[in-house]
């Protein structure tokens, strides 16, 4: 065991109190018998990519959905698992740390011990590096004691490196075989779960006995699809950031002379920025998805902000708060194109010092226009997944500087009558990653840990643990598992009128749905947010009292529960089959045929239109 990991923490009184909180589990996970109902084969949401995905994952694509049932459920075809031999399960943190990750470990530990006290949970130290090096720590009550309901990943450590190359995949399989693992649980976001799917496929092809299970844990909230409503950590990050933003709002309102430009962590998608805006009511939020959809340039965005500052000044308000997602730089067309050129030169081995001299004429002109600090940051070597080092690119300072220049010009010309523009910039990112998790994240993570054991007991491979109906109380949560391959899409890039490039299947980041209810709610209130100071402070994280049971607004306003709807559809189909049998009346048969014909025609049109879309 590495002495840096698993060491009992020195806890404050608040932390000690929080270790005593015991999350609830839904009825479907209670008891020592596992009841699982299998649905139909799960397919990819993008029909056009289904062939590519099934070809890449022949052993794990097309597996059925799994629903875990409560003891009182009457389902004739359900599989009942009452015998639980001792198992050896490995667990590893991958990707960036996210509040609540420790509770996944705790939930899984409690579940495997409840079903067989001789089972072992083995943590890999230092993330995927520890997995490949077989550096392990057996999880025990003593190890867990000071990490329950606590933030960070420091019990085991983590890595953001991918398990992608043939050498890495084979190394992971060798470790699992050497340790005689029945299952490997991978905790992470879109990249880590894509890796989990590849490991599951490779293990199945090699007839390796280890089953691979993924868990949706990422603070960015961008692992969202028909099976995953939100991720562990998202609620905490948004609540912690929203309180900080609200503090800035109060300060701005008090001083009446500053504009705060606040950049928020969240990678390319703007889910964190959207949720924080709904919680704290800042004057303005720039969403990357809006910018990309409208193809706004950096000058368009600057003008938008300047016009907002001028409109507020006309109401004698010379202060405000503006939220900016860290991924905005990749949503601005000209800056994204510049980054692509820079990364291409990095890939050719050109040093950072020489890149500027090898840019195309237009890129060189844009590069020279930008302030020196941004130039230096854009030249940083890309991440392991070829994306920009977004956390290091100070887009908020760039926008603040451009806005200040324009407002000074307007002030000089006399078109702006307000006070001199003053900006203060902040980046809210690392401060929240190690935060004590919210009650919702503690519950959600703990339940997902229990779901992992149910998946393992059912002998499933290449699945992600899922919990739906999350906006309801815990006792109404629906627990199940979905094949990770069914969550994959295939990116396509147009290359002229007839040529296109097809990427590898992957669990891709989900952007904000600009037709969704959360975005609609923001747009309905954007004018009042801009011109009226209706700032809202959600307060600190609570486990008891007002606000303790609050959940993300963007989760609660959406009408999700996909797994519940699938089950409801299956029930309707079964009712139709039970009513329309040989011997039923002509009228019943005609009504059924007419209804089914109309439904299938509508569904055929919907699926054909979606499969014909090209992703750019």
UniProtKB/TrEMBL annotation:
Pathway: Carbohydrate degradation; glycolysis; D-glyceraldehyde 3-phosphate and glycerone phosphate from D-glucose: step 3/4. GO terms for cellular component: cytoplasm. Residues 88-454 form the Phosphofructokinase domain. Allosterically activated by fructose 2,6-bisphosphate. It holds the Pfam family PFK. It is found in: Cytoplasm. GO terms for molecular function: 6-phosphofructokinase activity; diphosphate-fructose-6-phosphate 1-phosphotransferase activity; metal ion binding. Keywords: Allosteric enzyme, Cytoplasm, Glycolysis, Kinase, Magnesium, Metal-binding, Transferase. One of its GO terms (biological process) is photosynthesis. Tetramer of two alpha (regulatory) and two beta (catalytic) chains. Belongs to the phosphofructokinase type A (PFKA) family. PPi-dependent PFK group II subfamily. Clade 'Long' sub-subfamily. HAMAP family: Phosphofructokinase_II_Long. PANTHER family: PYROPHOSPHATE--FRUCTOSE 6-PHOSPHATE 1-PHOSPHOTRANSFERASE, PYROPHOSPHATE--FRUCTOSE 6-PHOSPHATE 1-PHOSPHOTRANSFERASE SUBUNIT ALPHA 1. Regulatory subunit of pyrophosphate--fructose 6-phosphate 1-phosphotransferase. This is Pyrophosphate--fructose 6-phosphate 1-phosphotransferase subunit alpha. It comes from Urochloa decumbens. The gene is PFP-ALPHA.
């Amino acid at each position: 065991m590495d002495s840096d990991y698993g060491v009992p923490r020195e806890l404050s009184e608040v932390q000690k109190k929080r270790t005593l909180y015991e999350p609830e589990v839904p009825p479907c996970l209670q008891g020592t018998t596992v009841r699982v109902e299998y649905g139909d084969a799960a397919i990819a949401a993008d029909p056009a990519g289904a062939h590519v995905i099934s070809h890449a994952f022949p052993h794990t694509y097309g597996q059925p959905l799994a629903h875990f049932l409560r003891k009182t459920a009457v389902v004739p075809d359900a599989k009942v698992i009452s015998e639980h031999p001792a198992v050896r399960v490995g667990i590893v943190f991958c990707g960036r740390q996210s509040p609540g990750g420790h509770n996944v470990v705790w939930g899984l530990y409690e579940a495997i011990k409840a079903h067989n006290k001789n089972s072992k949970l083995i943590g890999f130290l230092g993330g995927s590096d520890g997995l490949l090096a077989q550096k392990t720590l057996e999880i025990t009550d003593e190890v867990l004691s000071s990490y329950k309901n606590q933030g960070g990943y420091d019990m085991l450590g983590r890595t953001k490196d991918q398990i992608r190359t043939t050498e890495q995949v084979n190394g992971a399989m060798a470790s699992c075989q050497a340790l005689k693992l029945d299952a490997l649980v991978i905790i992470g976001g879109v990249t880590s779960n894509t890796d989990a799917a590849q490991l599951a496929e490779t293990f199945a092809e090699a007839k390796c006995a280890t089953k691979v299970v993924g868990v949706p844990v990422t603070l960015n909230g961008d692992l969202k699809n028909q099976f995953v409503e939100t991720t562990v950590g998202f609620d905490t990050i948004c609540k912690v950031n929203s309180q900080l933003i609200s503090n800035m709002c109060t300060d701005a309102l008090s001083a009446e002379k500053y504009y705060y430009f606040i950049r928020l962590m969240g990678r390319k998608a703007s889910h964190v920025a959207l949720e924080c805006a709904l919680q704290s009511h800042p004057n303005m939020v720039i969403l990357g998805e809006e910018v990309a959809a409208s193809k706004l340039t950096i000058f368009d965005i600057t003008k938008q902000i300047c016009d907002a500052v001028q409109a507020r000044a006309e109401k004698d308000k010379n202060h405000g708060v503006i939220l900016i997602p860290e991924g905005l730089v990749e949503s601005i067309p000209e800056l994204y194109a510049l980054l692509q050129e820079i990364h291409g030169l990095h890939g050719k081995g050109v040093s950072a010092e020489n890149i500027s001299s090898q840019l195309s004429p237009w890129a060189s002109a844009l590069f020279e226009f930008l302030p020196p600090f941004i130039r230096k940051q854009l030249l940083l070597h890309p991440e392991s997944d070829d994306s920009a080092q977004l956390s290091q690119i100070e887009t908020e300072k760039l926008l603040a500087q451009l806005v200040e220049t324009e407002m000074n010009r307007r002030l000089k010309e006399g078109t702006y009558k307000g006070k001199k523009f003053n900006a203060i910039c902040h980046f809210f990112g690392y401060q929240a990653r190690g935060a004590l998790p919210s009650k919702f994240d503690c519950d959600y993570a703990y339940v997902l840990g229990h779901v992992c054991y149910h998946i393992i007991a059912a002998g499933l491979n290449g699945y992600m643990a899922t919990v739906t109906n999350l906006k309801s109380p815990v006792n109404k949560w629906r627990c199940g598992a979905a094949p990770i391959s069914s969550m994959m899409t295939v990116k396509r890039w147009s290359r002229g009128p007839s040529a296109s490039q097809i990427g590898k299947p992957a669990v891709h980041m989900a952007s904000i749905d600009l037709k969704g209810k959360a975005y609609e709610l923001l747009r309905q209130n954007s004018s009042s947010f801009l011109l009226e100071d209706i700032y809202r402070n959600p307060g600190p994280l609570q486990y008891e009292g007002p606000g303790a049971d609050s959940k993300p607004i963007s989760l609660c306003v959406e009408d999700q529960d996909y797994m519940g709807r699938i089950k409801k559809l299956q029930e309707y189909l079964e009712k139709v089959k039970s009513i329309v049998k040989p011997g039923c009346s002509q009228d019943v048969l005609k009504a059924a045929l007419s209804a089914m014909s109309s439904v299938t025609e509508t569904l055929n049109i919907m699926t054909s239109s979606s499969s014909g879309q090209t992703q750019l």
